[in-house]
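name: query_chain
kind: protein
chains: 1
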Amino acid sequence: MVHFAKRVLLIYLVVMAVVAWLQRSLMFPAAKTELLLVAECPAATGIFAAASDVAIVAEDHQTIRGWMLQSDKKRSDRLVILFHGNGGDRSRRWGWYELLRSINVDVLAMDYRGYADSDGSPSEKTLTQDATATWKYATQTLGYQPGQIILLGESLGGGVGVKLASTICQQGEEPAGLVLVSTFSSMLDTASNRFWWLPVRFLLLDRFRSDLEIGHVTCPVLQFHGTIDSIIPLRLGQRLHELTPSQASNGIEKKLIIFNGTNHNDVLDRHGVELRDAIREFIEQTRNDPATK
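structure:
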């Protein structure tokens, strides 16, 4: 019996060591491509007549790449910075591009470090650097005012978006709004839920503590989540909502929209119309705020 227990413990320790070693490849299943040019993606240029390639150099001199998507050469008064989930790259976000085109906003879609044709390797630290570099590019190079920019984060991208919004707000600026889709209170909570049999709190490197950042977000916040999300349970989205300030600095109340019978990856497919209408209304609210004009 003692021998059996020792074998079980040894197997457990080996599995724990393997998961700890591979955790970043599990969290960031990035696929590399040589060069992802928007001109070679007719689905993008067919939606946005003025589409161009973007390369941004982060503070550590690594280059991330993406697309600037505009309906025409005349700039919209709103820009959405899209932070995608941990799977795929910017070439697989057609549903979001179509939705955002339908509400007449420009889109800046970047790939994180190590994804597609972006340099480097992904981690919480480097994704935070990428988000900061993208914000600076939008405001300093493209010339959008902070109050013209909506941050949209999906799943893992929600953690990236919350951190960026928190940092910006604490620096005395505010984006026009923060939209979060199927995201978490923290990666720590998410991993603990999924790997309940592991000492995640001791092993996890990239924690994305949105629960500690969201209280600093003073811009309007709109959330979406499905009731049967098997990757990020609804209760984690609800916890983030509870920690969000009840009102933005301009008086717009926080909002969480829950989709019954919806899982993690089918929110956009099943509820595209509801998402479009809610995001359009959200953006119109920001247009009515003199500070964002």
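note: Residues 2-27 form the longest helix (26 residues).
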